[in-house]
Give the backbone structure.
Amino acid sequence: MRRARLPFRVPTVLLLVAVAVVLSSCGWSLWDSPMTTVKPKSDFGKGIQDLFMLISWWTLGIFIVVEGALVWACFRYREKPGQPIPSQVHGHTVLEVSWTIAFAVILLIIGIPTIQMIFRTQEPEAASALRVEVSGRQWWWEFTYPEYKFSTANELHLPIGRQVAFHLHAPDVIHSFWIPQLGGKRDVVPHRVNRIMLTPEVPGEYLGQCAEYCGMSHANMRFRVIVHTKDDFDKWVADQRKPPVEPTDELAKKGQELFAQSTCVGCHTIRGVSGGAMAPDLTHFGSRKTFAANLMQNTPENVAKWIENPAHMKPGVLMPDLGMRGEQTKALAAYLTSLK
Ligand code: CUA
């Protein structure tokens, strides 16, 4: 008895299933990850998403037409037994010219909304916009709010419903500012100020990341974005504008003394205590959830480990090991994390 021949061999089917599973899981994790670009939470992100979907649908239509014609031609003109060699054709001028024109027209149609979107991102900022001066540095982010006259690091707080105008500065090398869920990205280039404008629409916590290779700890150059309701944002601003809290417990007091006597003051600002400008402002360090460009949870244990060996956590970091150990780092960490 002859066995019926399957149109596909079993290994081929298994391979296709495996590829489908991998692709769908990739797709799912991209959809759901904190770095997703397909769930925009700002007007700018939505604009980019709409453009992306528009082009995707158009190209899906083109794909179906082209692949449909190809498959149809494969079956329709398949070689049949005993068939003579068909007439040999070398080029078809009318066909070639027409599909060249057709695709030029398609590119032109895609180009129109794309260019419109590019121009939209370069419009002047609204007079009521919240301006944030962003400095991308090796390897951390500084956020200065000129309107409120303070700086923070690696933690960007924004209100919903108000346009934010980021002015991007690069004091050292090229970086790229990117908050996938809010839209982007834009290069941060030395000797010029690039801008990006967006209005956050959904309160929540989003992740940002440097998206341009900028040296050893490029991948560690992250930040967090917290989008608040208006009242919560005003409260955060009021807290940040306050002078640093005075330590109350003995360990933190000792830490404050140590800080003021150490070379920390050459790089870090704690308002009223020190005025360094090369490294993150620590006035309200304890209010931040993470530190070291969003690498570590902000706990006294982690801060102590960081002070003893910063390069272990962030390779290439400019902050040196100041030789402080044991009780000294414990005291410093207690002081810094008390700066809520
Ligand atoms: Cu900064 Cu990559």
